[in-house]
Amino acid sequence: MVIILLLSLCIATKNYEVYGSMPNLYKSEDLALDEHLKALNKAPIKTIHTEYGRIVDCIDINKQLAFDHPQLRNHKIQLKSSIQDTKPEAMKRDKSTRYSNFGLNEKDSCPNGTIPIQRTTKEDLIRANNFGTLAQFDRGSHFAGLVMKHRIFFGIVGTINVYNPPVGDDQMSSAYIWLSSGVINSSMPNYVVIHAGWQVYPGMSGDNLTHFFISWENSIQHTGCTNMLCPGFVQTSQSIFIGAPVKNVSIYGGAQYSMSLNLTQDPNTKNWWLKAQDMDVGYFPAALFSNKLNFAMRVGWTGHTKVFVGGTSPQMGSGHIPDRNPRHSSYISKLYYKDRFRDDHIPLKDSVRVYADNPNCYNANYYGYVDNILQHAMMFGGPGGNCGL
């Protein structure tokens, strides 16, 4: 297995480009891809053909890819988080908000003791080479969002407005919550970081749909990936699967749909649990982060675009600069961060920093309390264009 993982790292450094067709590969490269696929795709108990043309396999929860990670070989799976929701009843998920659907339909359920995993293809592996790590403030990336000023955090919560911005094959547009520890923007990076949200990125998914995604990186050990392309994230959900297409998205001036996300450290196991739409999806085990993520030093809510080969940048969110109107501007609402007791706190305006690296293309604004539905919200987005690199 160690040899297979080393082969996969070698493949990841190759400069392949594929969006709709397979490139010509050397026989050794093709064989290495096949070996990597065998490691990633576990024997299914049930196979589901989704409406989007992708295959989802129901895998024994105890035989999932995460446990191929050297530091998780003897890991005892945590089936349910022990985190208590501390928000007052009035602040919990309300019936007036439309929530996006992603994951399996009720008729396509996985058997008890199994979890749904989207089957990885050879094209997926080659496309994944083009995906820049979200933690890197690298060439072609633009950001607009909100970050908490320095302190110690044990979780972050946000409900992200979901759009499907038009994106070319060499572009990406996303929105997510994140937390990190260490130094990211440095000549000698020493950090760990987790992201969760939605993205439109044909170079990763092979289509122009909006997808639920996660990513993580441990720069100390040079490990991490997007979605389930490497061992790490432990999935527990029987319905939501990582990389799932989002079935309903917002329309400018019309119906708005949202994705509720919660990323919090379990006080007992120190694992970082991810909830989506108020359901446990799974967790990032503490062992992944070399004891460098016992708490987060930074948390934030972000819109992000990227162009890979020059040219214009895509639109972010709805494609409109924030104007306080939630039917116009993309937003992340119900903002909370968690203290060491895992209690929820609303970000105060003097405790956050609003940032946008190119206000002519994208911007962000923190409005504080907006109304009973959005509660405390940040709005972000913009049309993109010639934003510079």
From TrEMBL:
Keyword field: Signal
Domain of life where this protein originates: Eukaryota
Signal peptide: 1-20
Gene3D superfamilies named in the record: Outer-capsid protein sigma 3, large lobe (3.90.1320.10)
Keyword Signal: yes
Span of domain Neprosin PEP catalytic: 170-383
Pfam families: Neprosin, Neprosin_AP
Domain Neprosin activation peptide: start-end pairs: 47-132
PANTHER family: PROTEIN, PUTATIVE (DUF239)-RELATED, PROTEIN, PUTATIVE (DUF239)-RELATED-RELATED
UniProt protein name: Carboxyl-terminal peptidase
Species whose genome carries this gene: Vicia faba (Broad bean)
Organism lineage: Eukaryota, Viridiplantae, Streptophyta, Embryophyta, Tracheophyta
